[in-house]
Amino acid sequence: MLRMTTLRCGLWLLAVASLPVAPAAAAPASAAHAARVHVIMIDKMQYGPMPTGVRAGDIIEWTNHDILEHSVTARDGSVDLDLKAGASGRFTVTAGSHTYFCKFHPTMTATLLVR
Ligand SMILES: [Cu+2]
């Protein structure tokens, strides 16, 4: 009798051990891409190189290394960031091609591509 009980317990353990492990819940699509911060330097009256691989929801941080005030102003009016000398500012971007210019020095322009 004892032998039969041991055998049953052994079979039960084997059955439990072979149960498939439930897969982890799939992450929601919005969480699949963690927002990244891209830093753009403003120096010598120019916007630094535009970062590549920018995706919607990422953060762009602009740092003004000049001794003059600059702005990062979107042509579509969605952004208008005034940056005094040495100041930094940031905003979150949406998908598309975004063109920025400086209100104080309109020859300063940049186009940022966001996927
Ligand atoms: Cu400027």
TrEMBL record:
Residues 25-114 form the EfeO-type cupredoxin-like domain. The keyword Signal applies. InterPro entries: Cupredoxin, EfeO_Cupredoxin. Keywords: Signal. Pfam families: Cupredoxin_1. Residues 1-26 form the signal peptide. The keyword Signal applies. Coiled coil: none annotated. This is Plastocyanin.
